[in-house]
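ok trying again, last paste got cut off:
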Amino acid sequence: MPDAGSVSGTGMRVRLPGLAALSGSGSLLAGIVLALLVLFLCFLVPLAWRADPYALNPLSPLSHPSRAFPLGTDELGRDNLARVMDAGRATLLVALPAAAVTFLAGLLYGLASGLGPRLLDAAMMRLLDAVLALPGLVVLIFFAAILRLSTPSLILLLGLISWPPLARLVRNETRAVRDRDFVQAAYQMGGGFFHVVTTHLLRVMAPVLAVNFTFLVGEMILLLSALSFLGLGVQPPQTSWGGLLEGALQLVALDPWWLVLPPGLLIFASLLSASLIGQGLLARQGRA
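nice, full thing came through this time. structure:
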């Protein structure tokens, strides 16, 4: 019986693109387009819309969207479009470096464990199990509540709380690849340790690492938004999408939908774009 991606006739079998291939390419393209739209709004639109996100307009508090204020104003009369774009820059300029810190920490720990002696690997894995047993969000809230957070410290806090799952993945992939013939051949031909790691091990793991990095970006945006919603993330006068949501929900009795929808939709769009890109890369990896 022919499979779902093929058509057979008399003496001929024609392979057609499978549904998984089409859906994978569509997910990747949709995710990239959505991510570019979010980046365009946060970094390029402000070059044209130069309103000050901190300027007060006492005569226009809680104004509905209009030509003068396309996304209305908040309770102090501040331009909500300018605030949403400013909050987006703050969110992404914390979330993206935090994802990079998480990625680097997980990669280095996983490589050290996977390439180390059996005893070192066992000790590092037991330590990793202990860290994974801790509720990450609770630990994050605890440290955010007791520390005075600047942008660099917030990046480090987010990055150093989320690395264990990636470290376990990298360790398992490293253990699976380290004894393969092409790696041993590279050693026998005089390849140094760092040359073998960067040229062979990381090249084999590159597709898996790329997928996980996209998911890490979405996770960092979600964690930062949750912290800011609780008042523990990006600190005033700077704000983030989570902070805008928290401020808008304090006025929920006044039904300020123009304050609630934009940051909520942008958080959702950012998470969706990261998820779609990751799923698209997974689908392409499955077809490779």
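cool. Residues 193-229 form the longest helix (37 residues). The chain has one domain: 20-48+68-287.
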